[in-house]
Each structure stands twice: as structure tokens, then as C-alpha cells.
User: What shape does this take?
Amino acid sequence: MRNQNHLYSILIFLLLPMIASAFPQQSLVPGGIAIIEIPANTQASYGNHFVAITTHKQRHYAIVGIPLSAKTGQHQLVLSNGKVLTFKVKAKDYPSQYLTIKNKRMVNPYQNDRDKIIQDKHKKKQAIKTWSDSIPNVNFIQPVPGIFSSPFGLKRFFNQQARSPHSGLDIAAPTGTKIIAPSAGKVILADNFFFNGNVIYIDHGQGLISSYSHLSKILVEANQQIKQGDTIGLVGETGRVTGAHLHWSVYLNQTLVDPKLFLPKP
Assistant: This one.
């Protein structure tokens, strides 16, 4: 019985990061988020896009996604009442990562793969443009237990060839591990992509979109409403991978941001 209780305690300890939820952390760097208090009943825009508005402890906040391409210095948040608020973006140097992909087709696709890749990009672009008026629950829980194997924003090189920065957070977990929804929302896309393998995109409201890549199995379908904690799929290694893991991405105002900022601090 003592050994059983000890194992139970270890299991609870391992699951705590996944169960706990927290309000997002502000990080005023490219790929980070700005959290700015605004008056009630006010909309806000950054660049050419509206931003998500949520409440926390009876106060109203704009949750702004800062692009990886953002320049350092002052940035403006324009409110619907005509006021302009500013925040300062600081520089951040993301490290480089060099990966060897055995399937060379996933680095240099064949000519007949290109139509599929273009179709995937169009579907992805349409998905992240989704806007619904529901107030998002930004108190995320971790979608799968596991080690953070590759952080967001890495400068990536596949087989010594430069590629786009890492667009999400990789969580290493065995194939078949259940993936849960970090927050309530609506499935807007469940498909198979050339590079990303089996993918799911979820609309959490007001431009807050999350995506899940390389799944071995998709357990939801487009237009399905889901609750926080619902199982949506299983970890796999489909698409361009070096092993089984979940590639988790988060978008705000059509901008990729670091998903780790939505999780409780260790």
C-alpha cells in the first residue's frame, strides 16, 4: 500500500503542470504578448487587426500578440474611444537549432508536392483569420504532459538549410498520448498537412487560435464545440518530425506567439 501511495503521489506531481491554469504572462519582446488594461466596453486594434479583450479580477485587458518581425521601440494600441496607448518592445535573440531530417522530401519537396503545400498554406491562413465575438478564456492548461523539447522562436536549420523560425512549442511525449484542449472553443480545422501531418485548429474567441500538429489520430471534427480538458487527439510523428511530440502553436491577432506564456510558471 505504501508503494502504491508513493506512485500515486508521483503521478499527481507529474500531472500538476497540466492541470493548473494561470493568466498569461506579459513578455514585451518579438513573439511575446502585451497585456494592457483598457476601459470596459472598448475595442482595441494593433496594426491592422483587432485584439482579444478579456477580463481578470474584474478588470478589462487587451491581450496583444507581438510578431517575431516586430521592431524594437514604441508600439501603439488604438482604442475604439479614440485613445492611443503605447508599449515598448525590447529585443530578444532566439538561439539556433540544427536538425537532421532523414526523409529528405520533407526538406526539399518534390515538384508534385507543391500543390498540396500551397493548399495547406491557404487553409492555415483562413483558419487564423477566424474571428468570433465570444470572450476567450485565456487561463490555459497544458495540452499534454511531457518535456518541452524545442522552445518557440528558434532559428531553424534542416539538414544545414535555413528555414522559418520555430512557430510553436514542442512537447515530447510517446505516440498515443492524449492531447486535451487547453481552453474551451470551436474546432475550425481538422486535416492533414504535408509538413505538419495531422493538424487541429481551435478558435477560442476574438482571434485567439491554437493549433496542434503531428498527431497520430484526430478525435474531433470541424465545427465541433469543445470544453477545456476535452481530449482532441493523440500524439504522433506525422509530417516533418524527428520523433514523437506535440507541436503546439498559439495565435493572437493573426500573430504567432510563445505558447509557454499561457502556462503557469514552474
Notes: The radius of gyration is 19 Å. Residues 2-19 form the longest helix (18 residues). The CA atoms of residues 19 and 197 lie 27 Å apart.
